[in-house]
Amino acid sequence: MARSQPQLEAFLEMLSAERNAAANTLAAYRRDLADAAAFLGRLGLELVAADTASLRRYLAALAGTMSPRTQARRLSALRQFFRFLVEDGQRKDDPTAALDAPKLGRPLPKLLSEEEMLAVIAACRELESAEGVRLLAMVELLYATGLRVSELVRLPLAAALRDQPFMTVHGKGGKERLVPLNPPAKAALGAYLEIRSRYLAKAAPSPFLFPSRGKEGHLTRQRFGQLLKEIGIRAGIDPARISPHVLRHAFATHLLDHGADLRSLQKMLGHADIATTQIYTHVQEERLKSLVEAHHPLGGGKRGRAGGA
């Protein structure tokens, strides 16, 4: 590392001066490059003199010890470092140019089962308070419509005053769409409207369906997220597994489970590209795969136990 230290310091200085990199970012680059330098040092090589083959050996060694995302970050640090050396005239070639990034895969959304959603709804009903009535309305709305949490907390009062099976929502980019309102959501919304005035500031009407006395004028997404985690605990669900976005995922996945088509789901979720909606088909595939492995006689679980008899 000794020969490489001046170049590393110059690289970090460039990141700080030209790209305004934060202290944490600089520390991460330093750690990642120091790790690569230590590995190469054991091969008798300096980082600044590394070739493609030695860097490929380094990345191969990482593959068995860390996630693909961390590997990709290490490779990104190396690429930027060697690009800097080339642009600074300290190297004529970039040994990272021929290296392939690890396949990250597409992270599947967190999900609650239908039984868990029913448990959350039941826990809201058990509160028997104005807070419980409001929370039940928000949970039922989110589960019935798949709204984004930002759309939910900013819903106008006017959206709930029409006795219709659909609600008009203004989503990303000001785009308008219709979302369904099932009977439980309409009932919960009706009960909430009767006590909504409790959340209004004195003599101050609000245009929001879920008003708040805070500076934003409506219940914040952060506060709703806190309330969801609290009700998740009451429902026996790990609070780390529940959030407004998880309820949106539950809406989408459970609809697909019951025969909804992707195009309709795309419209209800407000996705501009159907490729975004297709992630839920991967969720179904993973769930089916797990089900077969756990319960089918030819699956890994039972078959493995039988083979050991």
Name some characteristics of this structure.
single chain, 309 residues, mainly alpha, hpI Integrase, Chain A, 2 domains, two-stranded antiparallel ribbon, 2 strands, disordered C terminus, DNA_brk_join_enz, cell division, DNA recombination, DNA integration, Tyrosine recombinase XerD
Structure description:
By secondary structure, the chain is mainly α. It has two domains: 5-87; 114-293, hpI Integrase, Chain A, CATH 1.10.443.10. Helix content is 58%, strand content 3%. The chain has 14 helices and two strands, in the order αααααααββααααααα.
Report Rg.
Answer: 27 Å
Q: Per the principal axes of the C-alpha atoms, what is the gross shape?
A: elongated
Strand order of the largest sheet: 1-2
CATH-assigned fold name of the largest domain:
hpI Integrase, Chain A
Number of helices: 14
Order of helical and strand elements: HHHHHHHEEHHHHHHH
Provide the β-strand percentage band: under 5%
Number of strands: 2
CATH uppermost class of the largest domain: Mainly Alpha
Subcellular location: Cytoplasm
Pfam families: Phage_int_SAM_1 (PF02899), Phage_integrase (PF00589)
Domain Tyr recombinase: 107-293
Keywords: Cell cycle, Cell division, Chromosome partition, Cytoplasm, DNA integration, DNA recombination, DNA-binding
